[in-house]
Write a structure and sequence with these properties.
alpha/beta, FAD/NAD(P)-binding domain, 3 domains, 18 helices, globular
Length: about 525
């Protein structure tokens, strides 16, 4: 008899298991795939090359330092001096906006060249000072029971709260910025993982989650790839006595006099007092025979590439700078809005907004020494506004069309066509892999490819509602511990921590709730 059975062995499930096992609970993880990790895995995608890419999730922002400290994790994330680069073509001239973490002299010069004055950079600084106030207040609450709306509002202040939490993000950007490119760069943090336009509050929520991690919102590169985090968590869980069973797909739950029995597809059964669902709420609904929550389609396509060299840019900017942070292309505010309308109408956007980064410019450890010596690099591309519905009828044909369109768009900014930079396998095929939202559903059970498992929720509870960790379900003693929890989404460990704390709080009463 287990104290806790965890459905799903992603990083949140592993973190929950470690907290519970440290508290003396008997824990079993049941993972449907043949390996642990879920979306946080590193894999050798191209057999001819010793390169382990973060196949699905790829950057880290929200993983709190407290979780590292509590569990004694040595997993390291690496900062990036370059926040982003955006190539801009104007009147036949190739320009670029390099935004460094310190907003130094090059950033000032580029802002002036792109926008024609210093006003937009000052607006940028003012806006992100307000965002920092929100982060300073919200970040310390993420590993505690949910604060109320009024508690957060009182600490943040009415002006900033109304402007960035209550009003649609698009209204704020239109009021505070003038330049189409600058508005688009800010907006992208409200759209990664969310199929919405700038005037949907889903964009606000997504924006907040991207900007409050550890109080800084800095997106960092996982040293050794995402698989490094999973390996360390797996080793820790094993040392704490956690049982981990792969190829155990849970298909049903039965209520017993002591709690629940998890029934697997292979007919094996595991009994426990508590169930943690480290799976999407839609998957839990299938297991329990309940109604799944309404949720938007996933809308991002992920493309992984191995390059034999970095391409040069038409702007002349050093590619080791341009690709070191987030490389935005075709992500102006107006391009986002047009692409959303076209995708919502069932059409592949004529211009698909996208962004990329090069892991190996910050961390070469995912490549063999020989590949590093030869100058190989990885490149990750994340396409926005490519919702699952576009792929329903002809998934492979649509995927191929979108890949071609994206590479063609990218090439307009490159001196060296990206196809000439791709590494070639022994059979001559290029080292490129594309994952559509439907692939994400098939591979790692993300409903309709939604990387947040469902629509995001604001990181607070309404006034007058019961105290909550944001992980509770309508079923007694069943908690969400994955991205579908309130304050889930991203590689954070936050819902894993919070679900473990919810169980420890409840179990201390000694009753089955």
């Amino acid at each position: 008899m287990n104290d806790v059975v965890i459905i799903g062995g992603g990083h949140n499930g592993l973190i929950a298991a470690c907290y519970l096992a440290k508290a003396g609970k008997k824990v079993t993880i049941l993972e449907a795939q043949d390996q642990l990790g879920g979306a946080t895995v590193s894999q050798q995608l191209f057999p001819d090359f010793d390169a382990k890419l973060s196949r699905y999730s790829y950057l880290v922002s929200l993983l709190p330092d407290q979780i590292r400290h509590d569990l004694g994790l040595t997993f390291t994330t690496l900062g990036r001096e370059v926040a982003s680069f955006t190539p801009v073509q104007r009147e036949g001239e190739n320009l670029g906006l390099l935004i460094t973490s310190d907003l130094g002299a090059q950033t000032e010069e580029d802002f002036r060249a792109i926008t024609g004055s210093d006003a937009e950079l000052e607006a940028w600084k003012s806006f992100y000072r307000d965002v920092q106030i929100i982060a300073d207040v919200m970040a310390p609450t993420l590993l505690k029971p949910l604060p109320t709306r009024s508690e957060l509002r009182a600490k943040i202040g009415d002006r900033i709260w109304n402007e960035i939490v209550e009003r649609p993000l698009g209204e704020v950007l239109e009021a505070r910025f003038s330049n189409d490119v600058i508005k688009g760069i800010v907006l992208t943090d409200g759209l990664i993982g969310t199929f919405a336009d700038a005037h949907s509050l889903q964009s606000n929520i997504c924006f907040l989650y991207h900007l409050i991690g550890n109080g800084s919102g800095e997106w960092k590169v996982p040293q050794g790839g995402m698989g490094g985090l999973v390996r360390e968590l797996t080793q820790l869980a094993h040392s704490l006595g956690v049982t981990m069973e792969c190829s155990r797909k849970v298909v049903a739950l039965e209520v017993t006099d002591k709690g629940y029995q998890a029934i697997c597809a292979d007919t094996s059964r595991f009994e426990a007092t508590y169930i943690l669902a480290n799976c999407a709420p839609h998957v839990l609904a299938e297991i329990t025979g309940s109604t799944p929550p309404d949720s938007l389609d996933g809308s991002q396509m992920k493309i992984n590439m191995l390059l034999k060299k970095l391409p040069r840019l038409k702007s002349g900017v050093d590619p080791r700078l341009a690709f070191a942070g987030t490389f935005h292309f075709d992500e102006s505010y107006s391009q986002f809005e047009i692409a959303y309308r076209q995708a919502a109408a069932g059409e592949i956007p004529e211009i698909i907004p996208a962004e990329m980064y090069c892991h190996t410019l910050t961390d070469t450890s995912i490549l063999s020494p020989e590949l590093v010596k030869q100058g190989y690099q990885t490149l990750t591309l994340f396409a926005l506004h490519t919702p699952a519905a576009l792929f329903d009828n002809e998934p492979e044909a649509v995927k191929a069309k979108i890949v071609r369109r994206l590479l063609t768009q990218l090439n307009t900014y490159l001196e060296d066509p990206i196809e000439e930079c791709l590494a070639l396998a022994a059979d001559g095929s290029p080292c490129i892999e594309a994952k559509s939202p439907l692939d994400l559903e098939t591979d790692i059970s993300l409903p309709r490819g939604n990387i947040f498992h469902k629509d995001l929720s604001m990181p607070f509870r309404e006034d007058g509602t019961p105290e909550s960790w944001g992980v509770e379900t309508s079923f007694p003693n069943i908690f969400i511990c994955g991205a579908g929890a309130i304050r889930g989404g991203g590689v954070s460990g936050i819902p894993g921590h919070n679900a473990a704390q919810a169980i420890l709080s409840h179990s201390s009463s000694g009753t089955f709730l």
